[in-house]
Design brief:
It is elongated, with a radius of gyration of 17 Å. By secondary structure, it is an all-alpha fold. 75% of the residues lie in helices and 0% in strands. The chain has a single domain, classed as Four Helix Bundle (Hemerythrin (Met), subunit A), CATH 1.20.120. Keywords: Plasmid. This is Hemerythrin. InterPro entries: Hemerythrin-like.
Length: 184
């Protein structure tokens, strides 16, 4: 019966298969599913931004997309720092979580700089591009190193319950940021 497992989970795991290093989406707890889903969504937004730059789109169109990117990243980093990382700290080496927090700080600094700018300002596109590169690097480390270690060490942490808490907190944050339900 090995084929029935892969057949039943194939469609649900296709989006996150590379991120989970062999784990199917059905075996991923809700907390990891949520984070991986966010990673995919923001990656698509950065690709859409690169296309706007290439197509020399209007500043208002670029700014609207950047606002969506920044809002999503702020909510995502908040749920990781408030809920996921504290659970991860109990299970894996501290330096891995510390590095992720430092990467978040760098991204937040760049987000603040971008939010204070107008799309026609010098370095705007470059800063958004670099933010995308930071995030891509961060996502790769989380999905290829942190998540597998956390899931392997699971112990008594209920990552499905944690995922529910993270989803609720994300909705709350998006509502506070005026993006009520726009991104999830």
């Amino acid at each position: 019966m090995p084929t029935s497992k892969s057949t039943s989970s194939k469609s649900s795991s296709s989006k996150s298969a590379s991120a989970s290093q062999g784990k199917t989406a059905t075996s991923q707890p809700e907390a990891v599913k949520l984070l991986v889903k966010d990673h995919r969504e923001v990656s698509k937004l950065f690709k859409a931004y690169a296309k706007l730059v290439k197509d020399e789109a209007e500043g208002t169109e670029k700014q609207a997309l950047v606002t969506e990117i920044c809002t999503m990243l702020k909510a995502h980093t908040a749920i990781e720092e408030e809920l996921f990382y504290p659970a991860a700290r109990e299970l894996i080496e501290q330096d891995m979580v510390d590095e992720a927090v430092v990467e978040h700080a760098s991204a937040k600094d760049l987000i603040s700089q971008i939010e204070a700018m107008q799309p026609d300002e010098e370095l705007y596109d470059a800063k958004v591009t670099v933010l995308g590169e930071y995030i891509e690097h961060h996502v790769k480390e989380e999905e290829e190193e942190m998540f597998p270690k956390v899931l392997k060490a699971r112990s008594d942490v209920d990552f499905d319950e944690l995922g529910e808490q993270m989803t609720a907190r994300k909705e709350e944050l998006l509502g506070e940021m005026g993006a009520d339900g726009a991104m999830h």
